[in-house]
Amino acid sequence: MLFKSLTTLATGAAFFAGVATAGDVPAIEVVGNKFFYSNNGSQFYMRGVAYQADTVNQTSGSTINDPLADYDSCSRDIPYLKKLDTNVIRVYAINTSLDHSQCLKALNDADIYVIADLSAPDTSINRDEPKWTVNLFNSYKSVVDAFANYTNVLGFFAGNEVTNNYTNTDASAFVKAAIRDVRQYISDKDYRKIPVGYSSNDDEKTRVELADYFACGDDDVKADFYGINMYEWCGKSDFKTSGYADRTAEFKNLSIPVFFSEYGCNEVRPRLFTEVEALYGSNMTDVWSGGIVYMYFEKPISTV
Ligand SMILES: *[C@@H]1O[C@H](CO)[C@@H](O)[C@H](O)[C@H]1NC(C)=O
Ligand SMILES: *[C@@H]1O[C@H](CO)[C@@H](O)[C@H](O)[C@H]1NC(C)=O
Ligand SMILES: *[C@@H]1O[C@H](CO)[C@@H](O)[C@H](O)[C@H]1NC(C)=O
Ligand SMILES: *[C@@H]1O[C@H](CO)[C@@H](O)[C@H](O)[C@H]1NC(C)=O
Ligand SMILES: *[C@@H]1O[C@H](CO)[C@@H](O)[C@H](O)[C@H]1NC(C)=O
Ligand SMILES: *[C@@H]1O[C@H](CO)[C@@H](O)[C@H](O)[C@H]1NC(C)=O
Ligand SMILES: *[C@@H]1O[C@H](CO)[C@@H](O)[C@H](O)[C@H]1NC(C)=O
């Protein structure tokens, strides 16, 4: 505390990490089971797009092809994202040794938020041999450190599809430990209260119980939000046939925000995107907080 007040004296109040300055978008907060703009309390409903070309670049040999470290690419794409009325992108893996300030600033200026996975191909919780280690925590911390200063960072995923069926539900306990520790780290560093959650697959035997598991417990242990990667609606379907109606009934009472952390299906061509009307219509908006369409780049269903 003393250190903090001394630095304030030395450099002025705007020094504090995460303090918005003019031109920064308002931070997004979780209250109950919805997201809200912190400036005026309006609900924030995700109109998201997944945005990561590939996690592996065979040419350079680097395992992370960082979507926010290349200003030429992100500045090329932001106008297209704006045309779609995008208000959030999901990035899956970032290289914390690179600089992200230009892309994050350009996204901020376009009123686009970022939700980032803390894991990466070489640094994630392995469902077959789950562990939560100091090394892994350090790599998660480095992503938090790289992004915490930006008010357009909406949140972090502490895992993506770690449990993928009933045989490996034990792995989720390690993800929940990661959520708890990352949130504590954010608080210890005096960063803004950035939400930390989880992105699940859509396995019929585990989806409801997993959501309940992540949502339960005191504020210091539960997830701040829950995403589900949803590939049920293919081609010309409808609210009932697709399974969206059943999922909406099942997730209706979840006590934390729930949204599609990926959605889409490209098994039927051309891809019609008819699910968009359902997701943003009154059958769903009371329960869900929108979704993140998979994805900006053409590729098969995520296996990250
Ligand atoms: C609240 O603020 C957000 C972000 O500036 C803005 O998009 C939204 O329209 C505002 N809501 C109202 C009711 O003014
Ligand atoms: C992959 O790496 C090579 C060599 O560094 C670079 O020229 C190329 O642009 C990268 N590809 C992508 C998709 O970023
Ligand atoms: C991160 O970027 C550095 C600098 O370009 C590179 O040396 C390293 O291989 C990259 N790491 C990963 C995991 O891609
Ligand atoms: C975040 O802001 C603080 C205070 O301005 C600064 O010291 C720090 O280097 C910034 N971190 C990043 C990753 O930009
Ligand atoms: C569960 O997932 C694991 C890991 O992907 C896989 O090896 C196993 O076959 C799956 N089991 C069932 C019953 O689906
Ligand atoms: C949701 O809560 C209502 C009111 O408590 C209850 O009647 C209903 O069965 C619950 N639905 C689910 C899917 O848990
Ligand atoms: C809302 O649900 C009703 C009843 O299933 C259905 O007829 C209607 O098409 C749905 N609306 C949208 C936009 O999907």
From TrEMBL:
Its main location: membrane. GO terms for cellular component: plasma membrane; side of membrane. GO terms for molecular function: 1,3-beta-glucanosyltransferase activity. Its EC number is 2.4.1.-. Pfam families: Glyco_hydro_72 (PF03198). It is found in: Cell membrane; Membrane. Keywords: Cell wall biogenesis/degradation, Disulfide bond, Glycoprotein, GPI-anchor, Lipoprotein, Membrane, Signal, Transferase. It is an enzyme of class 2 (transferase). Splits internally a 1,3-beta-glucan molecule and transfers the newly generated reducing end (the donor) to the non-reducing end of another 1,3-beta-glucan molecule (the acceptor) forming a 1,3-beta linkage, resulting in the elongation of 1,3-beta-glucan chains in the cell wall. This is 1,3-beta-glucanosyltransferase. It comes from Saccharomyces kudriavzevii (strain ATCC MYA-4449 / AS 2.2408 / CBS 8840 / NBRC 1802 / NCYC 2889).
